[in-house]
Amino acid sequence: MLHHARAADGDDPTKVFTDGKKPTDIRLGAPKTLNDYFPFVVPKTKEAWEARRKQLREQLLVATGLWPLPEKTPLNAVVHGKIDRGEYTIEKVYFASTPGHYVCGNLYRPANGKSDEKRPGVLFAHGHWADGRFHDAGEKAAKASVDGGGEPDLDRGRFFMQALPATLAKLGFVVFQYDMLGYADSTAIPHGAGFRDAEAELRLQSQMGLQTWNSVRALDFLAALPDVDPRRLGMTGASGGGTQTFMLGAIDDRLACAFPAVMVSTAMQGGCVCENCSLLRVNTGNVEIAALFAPKPMAFSCANDWTKDFVRKGYPELERLYKLYDAADRVDAKEWLRYGHQYNVHAREFMYFWMRNYLLGKEEKVKEPAFKPVPPKELSVFDAAHPRPKDELDAKALRAAMSKASDAQMAKLVPTDAASLKEFRRVVGTALRAMVNSDKPKGILLSAWTGRFPTDRGVIARVGPPDSGHTYKTAELTTKLPSRMTSIPQEADYWHGDLVPFHQVESPKDTGQWVVWLHPAGNSSLYEKGKLVAPAQALVDKGLSLFAIDAFGTGELRSDKFTAVDKGYSGYTFGYNRSLPAQRVHDTLTAISFIRRTYINEKRVLGGNEEDGLPVHLVGWGEFGPIAVLAKALAGDAVAKTAADLNGFKFEDIKDPADPMLLPGAVKYGGLGAFLALCAPGEVLVHNHKDTGTGQLSRAAYEAAGAANKLTRSADKLDPAKVVEWLVK
């Protein structure tokens, strides 16, 4: 490894922020949380939205552990215990969404009509009300609801969880009301438990992901019923059930109509573990996620909770998006601010109207009729004749089975030829983009150079020591991206608040080649006692110019904030913020884009087209070796050669969710070996690979690309002289 003794600030030529100035990078502040502001900025064109829609949908699937989709194993559904309620019936259902894990619920069906009639189907996901579909608010709460005008009578005040599917069934819908994890009959895995450790993060296993998969399989069950029309499927749910509603609408094209109640807003995004997971809302929020359903009909109800401002913040942007599709009549939102967090009769009647209009073609208001509830115990799916399945798994056993199934999927992706390599890149490359949540920046803002000597271009450069034979410049970059996370109007061009302090050393021989220098000590690693360190000087002597960065967490971007991982559940942190490795890869991609735009065909042209620029080289020292590999995997042909010290690192060895090298999803998609495989057919040199497990998969990819000679692996400790020799040959 390259060693470096940091110079005192006054003698450090790489410092960007002098005279008491501090970097303004927003990442140096507190991490974003679920209680922050999440506006949705609508793209200017439908085409731009379609591109964003594809990208975001992939992000959601990766985040929930559903990229690629797991195998849809037989449901083996058991439907029994029909209860006749006159105008409708209730049946008891359980099925295996994946072997050993059971989804339970009640199936409500109209009692009249022709036996061969195909009816619209509706999924109903309850939220965080006690006991879920068994919920009984009690006489006191029911009376308060009636007295306050929220419910017409005590039966509906106590048992609105039954009133909703019962009414839909009376109106001609087949309704499946199913349990969230840990509620009613689905108690094998307690709600909020079982998915909080580092292994779960590295494999993207979460309650949110499992619950979303349960929703997909619940829709499979409903759509396959002989009396259901699979072209007319809707979904509703309130609070956490609202989260499941807009999530399923975002990832599953089969839903034709949706009504998420009291959930979608620019404010609080979901307070439970079952509504959060790593990667889910990085650079997005619930309004944009709900927007993925456009232009299909979607309506929302709001109350005096975190949704109270939705009609004025968030919903107008959704209307604007629907107008891009000439479908403004297919989105609506109403508010009842006199009531707290609820799904009372006013919101339910709005939902009935919405479902009837778009799934039955009957545009008329609905007044909810009175009903007689079933004692909750009688709705349970398990009894003496139908005991709990003997193969039901707890969280630990289920996660082991999920890992085995996922590993089997990944094993099938090992490249053997050009076609399989393309599929490997599609799956793993897409996953890595979602894990890093970064791509080539669409613009880069350059601050004024710092230093002492003005030039005729108005650029200030500091000239190196008289005997150094090179000049150097120091400044900061920030990226220009189409962010969804800003309150600036959509028409404006605006800048992210992330900065990349850099230090460049131009070789007097100027061969047009540049090396992005990544080091744990950042920019200052280029110097020792005022002179370039030996490998840096050797590269400059050979005509290669250097571009070092203070990637996030190094140099002038040192911070303890990135270690502030939520101690209860790291998904609360990484669900809204990039992990530290992802931040550093993002900064590296920014540097690569800047060099290619600024130094084009050996000419200094600030602000040029990146496509015209020459490829750059990457070198990652120490813990930045894996960062260099990840950056190369995403940068593709923009990087010519990559030299990386793997430093004996394995993602599989991480045991603490707060480990600074944790990258959510890394193990699921094959670890460092898979990301090295994505670099094929680029020229890559890796040192110190012993015990990293990178050999088999990376070699297979390079052989499939016909470039086996382009991957050089060495088990030896990093030798800077050999790195220089390899880069310049």
Kindly describe this structure.
The protein folds into two domains: 9-30 and 413-728, Rossmann fold; 53-385, Alpha/Beta hydrolase fold, catalytic domain (Rossmann fold). Strand 19 and strand 20 (603-604) form a beta hairpin. It starts with 45 loop residues before the first helix and ends with a helix. The strands form four sheets. Strands 10, 11, 12, 13, 14, 15, 18, 21, 22, 23 and 24 form an eleven-stranded mixed sheet that branches. It is of the alpha/beta class. It is 29% helix and 19% strand. It contains 19 helices and 24 strands. The protein is elongated, with a radius of gyration of 29 Å. Helix 15 (580-598) crosses helix 16.
Describe the SSE topology.
Layout: H1 46-63, E1 78-84, E2 88-98, E3 101-110, E4 119-125, H2 139-147, H3 154-158, H4 160-170, E5 174-178, H5 198-202, H6 207-224, E6 228-238, H7 240-251, E7 257-261, H8 286-291, E8 298-303, H9 315-324, E9 331-336, H10 345-360, H11 395-411, H12 418-436, E10 443-446, E11 453-454, E12 460-463, E13 471-480, E14 499-506, E15 513-518, E16 527-528, E17 531-532, H13 534-541, E18 544-549, H14 571-574, H15 580-598, E19 599-600, E20 603-604, E21 616-620, H16 625-635, E22 639-645, H17 671-677, E23 683-687, H18 695-704, E24 711-713, H19 720-728
Parallel strand pairs: 4-5, 4-6, 6-7, 7-8, 8-9, 15-18, 15-21, 21-22, 22-23, 23-24
Antiparallel strand pairs: 1-2, 2-3, 3-5, 10-13, 11-12, 12-13, 13-14, 14-18, 16-17, 19-20
Helix pairs in contact: 1-12, 13-19, 15-16, 16-17, 17-18
